[in-house]
Design a protein that fits this description.
It catalyses: L-histidinol + 2 NAD(+) + H2O = L-histidine + 2 NADH + 3 H(+). By secondary structure, the chain is of the alpha/beta class. It has helices spanning 12-15, 26-39, 41-52, 63-71, 75-93, 132-145, 163-172, 182-191, 208-217, 242-253, 268-282, 288-298, 307-317, 350-355, 391-407, 411-418, and strands at residues 4-6, 100-102, 108-116, 119-123, 149-153, 176-178, 201-203, 222-223, 231-236, 260-265, 300-303, 321-325, 341-344, 381-389. Helix 4 (63-71) crosses helix 7. The model has no long low-confidence stretch (mean pLDDT 93).
């Protein structure tokens, strides 16, 4: 049965605390990265045999494999993927930035120039489940940003890829796909090998080994974030349907044994009803073992004194997914300060965001929503500033710049300006 706590019985740090295996992956990942950097493709083939039971003769998906896989995708699913892609594209096109130029002062031109990254790597998980939705969410913003080349990596279990993954990649505009997973895939993208081109940025979720690999290669390449296990916080008043809330909590619990599903409500009767419903619905899930482990080890129901107190709890822990299951949710939206993605009202389950609505589902976890944002078009661009001054404009401020530089003990800085207007012998 899902555990119920009164407000104050669980500290903020314990609300999304997880029972995690005591495994330090740091050293293992470091060895894999060094091996791939040293041996290139040879190391990748070895890891494919070892971890994916895939005895490959080529790492890259051929156009024939790609086309054959798409032909095998259910036509209804293909239509769903295409419509989802349109929704995602429509939302992310609103995020596009443009160059700007300032010419409001005589003799000066200032501005900002937007440049897409040249090549990005998309990591798509392929372990206990396959996620074509993640393909769409990662590739579409990159293509909208203008990235010329999107390289996707995803593990080929037994040498085969899920056809839906390949179909989603085609719809989203992915350019090349490699049958690689784990830390070795991150290494290939970060360093490049004989087959896999080096990228400028790696995005996409993965397991603990993938997350640690991204952490270790950061600086060699850019990364989107260090994503932890999935988490959902549902803030609900007493008028909710317990079965609906239980289903929402389980939608995250079935992801991973380390996922966290938490309900905060101002109603003790609702809390008790949800706990009963979670137990009932668990028995109906194909992934019951995973979901049950998540619920029993990491799931919690917290009874707050008031709805405002429940919202305060949400702001304190900054959840990846926040469902605000209340009447008139827009009355409370301004109170939410920290959340990756917010789902408003009683008919907005988190799964709507995973697959369909349009906002990105690659979100900050582990409290990082306090200072970071969902994946967006901004993740795939660079911003460069530019400056132009005429001689008269620079002359007018030369002494001021020199004075500023002198205050910092950097005389050569000031001289680099003044020398342009000085007589011989400066």
């Amino acid at each position: 049965m899902m555990r119920i706590y009164e407000y104050g019985q669980v500290s903020r740090d314990e609300i999304f605390a997880r029972v995690e295996p005591e495994v330090d992956v740091t050293a293992v990942v470091r060895e894999i990265l060094a091996d791939v950097r040293s041996r290139g493709d040879a190391a990748l083939y070895d890891y494919c045999r070892r971890f994916d039971q895939a005895d490959l003769t080529a790492l890259e998906v051929t156009s024939e494999e790609w086309d054959a896989a798409i032909r095998n995708v259910d036509k209804k699913l293909l239509s769903v993927l295409e419509q989802s892609a349109k929704n995602i594209e429509a939302f992310h096109r609103r995020q596009v930035r443009t160059d700007f130029v300032l010419t409001d002062r005589p003799g000066m031109v200032l501005g900002q120039k937007i440049t897409p990254l040249q090549r990005v790597g998309l990591y798509i998980p392929g372990g206990t489940a396959c996620y074509p939705s993640s393909v769409l969410m990662n590739a579409i913003p990159a293509k909208i940003a203008g990235v010329p080349e999107c390289i996707m990596v995803t593990p080929a279990n037994g040498g085969k890829l899920n056809p839906a993954i390949l179909a989603a990649a085609k719809i989203a505009g992915v350019d090349r796909i490699f049958k690689l997973g784990g830390a070795q895939a991150v290494a290939a993208l970060a360093y490049g090998t004989e087959s896999v081109p080096r990228v400028d940025k790696i995005v996409g979720p993965g397991n603990a080994y993938v997350a640690e690999a991204k952490r270790q290669v950061f600086g060699q390449v850019s990364i989107d974030m260090i994503a932890g296990p999935s988490e959902i916080l549902v803030v609900a008043d007493g008028t909710n349907n317990a079965a609906h809330l239980a289903a929402d909590l389980l939608s995250q619990a079935e992801h991973d044994k380390l996922a966290s599903a938490v309900l905060v409500t101002d109603s003790r009767p609702l809390a008790e009803a949800v706990a009963v419903e979670v137990e009932r619905q668990l028995k109906l899930l194909p992934r019951e073992e995973i979901a049950r482990s998540s619920i029993e080890n990491n799931g919690k129901i917290i009874v707050a004194d008031t709805l405002d107190q429940a919202i305060d709890i949400a702001n304190e822990i900054a959840p990846e997914h926040l469902e605000l299951a209340v009447d008139n949710p827009f009355d409370h939206l301004s109170k939410i300060r920290n959340a990756g993605s917010i789902f408003l009202g009683k008919y907005c389950p988190e799964a709507l965001g995973d697959y369909w609505a349009g906002p990105n589902h690659t979100l900050p976890t582990m409290g990082t929503a306090r200072f970071s944002s969902p994946l967006s078009v901004d993740d795939f661009i660079k911003k460069s500033s530019f400056t132009y001054y005429t001689a008269d404009a620079l002359s007018a401020v030369a002494d001021d710049i020199a004075a500023f530089a002198e205050s910092e003990g950097l005389r050569a800085h000031g001289r680099s300006v003044q020398i342009r207007f000085a007589k011989e012998g400066f």
